Every structure is written in structure tokens, then in C-alpha cells.
Amino acid sequence: MRTQAEKAAAFRALHARPGAFIIPNPWDAGTARILAALGFEALATTSLGLANSLGRPDGANAVSRREVLDNCRAIAEATHLPVNADLENGYAHEPRAAAEMIRLAAEAGVVGGSIEDATGEPGRPIYDFNLAVERVQAAVETARSGPSEAMVTPIPSSTPSSPGRDVIEEVLGEDLPLTRARERVVEEFERRYVTRVLAQHGGNVSKASAASGIARRYFQLLRARHGS
Asked: Does pTM surpass 0.85?
């Protein structure tokens, strides 16, 4: 079995090499071992998978911080592969408090983690931009202070990559064929729509899909497609 430092080095090497790699989502030790046996090079925990495995719908605070950390430990200890953790919004609003989740997850054995900018509050679904940046900065500082230097990934919940971006003008400027240009605009609309309706319903997929007037399964497909 690799040490945590060796797993961290392997995970960083996957990001540094040319091309992309696929990182699947086990929800417990058993699925982690199955995915490792299939040849995957890294694993990532899933809040949706964990919640569903406990018989709960996905959503803000569907699982507790302790349940997430216990799940991280079980999956990290199950195989020799590096594990990235879905840490929700860090279970705190304040940057240092949210960053503490990175330290606890590293202690549980993971070597990477994501911090979301969704507050879990319907009236204020997304953190102010400056606060979101401060939260990621605090998480990165915490990760780099640890012995294995865990990697941190900020997960945007709704804001486009460039403030004020007009996707139609952007697509028109790329001189794409009509079919591809249309696909790009629809993709961006779907991403923003799914993210917004999820935020409006506190991350509850069942309520969001019902409000959208589409089947829960199709809503899940859209969510997975657009990383919402």
C-alpha cells in the first residue's frame, strides 16, 4: 500500500502529464475496490452517491461533516489509489473554518479536495465573489501546510468563468459552424439553468427537477453533464 505522500505525488503527476484522465466516483469501500480493479488511476468521493447510499436525497447538509469524513477514510483506506474528496462548501461560510475541512479530510487520508461556492441558503445561494476567492485561498494555504500538500479544486456553482461574459457574442466570435455554435449556447444555458434551480432549492435534486418540469433522472443527467 502506498503512503499518503506517495498517493499525493501520484495524483499530482496525473494532473501534470499531457492529456486528461478519468476519475470515477465510488460511494463506499466496496465500489472503490471495484473501480481500482478496473484499472482507474485515481478516485473521487461523491456527496450525491454517499447521500443516496444512506437512503437520502442529495442536497445541502444531506450528509453530516462526520459522515463525509468517515466516508473519505473508508475509501482512502480501501485501495492504493489517490483519492480526491467532495467536501461540499467546507461545512462553514468563514474562509478559515471552511479550510479546516481540508485539514480534516487530509487526516482521513485523501490527497485532494473540492470546495464549492454554494452557500446552501435559498435566499443567498452563491457566495459573494470576493468571499469565494478568500475561501479557496484559505483552503489552498491549509492544503500546502500539510505533509502531503493536498490539491484543492474550487467548484463554481453558477457564475461564468468571466464576469459579465456574453456567451452568444463569444460563440459568434469563434466562427463556428451553426450546429456547433447552437450546441455551445444551449450547453451554457443548461449549465446556468441547472445551477440556478439547484441553488434555489438548496441543492435538493428532487425539488429542483420537479420545479423544472422534467424527470429526476433527466435532471441528474444534465447535472452530471454540466458539472453542477
From this structure: no
